Amino acid sequence: MQKKKAVIGGVAAAAVVVGLGSWWAVGNAVEAQTSERGTCGGATWELSAEAEDGGTEVGAELQSAGPGEEWQVEVLRDDTALLDGTRTTDEDGEIDVDAFSDGNPGDATYAVTFTPADGEPCTATLGS
Questions:
Q1: Of 6, 50, 57, 62, which sits most exposed with the smallest number of CB within 10 A?
Q2: Type and span of the H or E element at 31
Q3: Would you say residue 88 has pLDDT above 90?
């Protein structure tokens, strides 16, 4: 009977350790990615920064009114341009860009500016 209790106790302890390990991994994954969402001039945007391969992957998305619109897109890490150019919305009215930066997501301020051909710029910032 003692062996059975020891085995059951060992299994229960292992389940707690595995559960805590999963909780820790999920908690750290949440801290490793940050994002902001908002609207501007009839468009919806999202800016995210996520720890990736020893650096930071910065993603920016725009959902506008329609397909075929030209937008100037600039993604910055502090004052350094990670991406700068013109993008055209796809058939769903979306623009999705990714850029890579050295350093951790929390070490800098990231910004994206989406500027339509005939309108006001939409700027989003993320970080300190």
A1: 6
A2: helix 2-32
A3: yes
**What is the C-alpha separation between 101 and 127, in angstroms, rounded?**
14
Compute the distance between CA of residue 12 and CA of residue 17 in angstroms, rounded to an integer: 9
What is the pTM for the complete model shown? 0.72
Give residues with Cβ within 8 angstroms of 41, minimum separation 6: 116, 119, 120, 122
Of the pLDDT bands very low, low, confident and very high (cuts 50, 70, 90), residue 26 is very low
Strands (E), 1-128: 33-40, 43-52, 55-63, 70-77, 80-88, 94-102, 109-116, 122-127
Rounded Cα–Cα distance for residues 23 and 71 (Å): 41
Higher local confidence (pLDDT), 65 or 37: 37
Side chain identity, residue 79: D
Are 108 and 94 in contact by the 8 Å Cβ rule? The answer is: no
Question: Which residues, listed in sequence order, are joined to residue 125 by a DSSP beta bridge?
Answer: 111
Average pLDDT on 19-46 reads: 67
Integer Cα distance of 34 and 6 in angstroms: 44
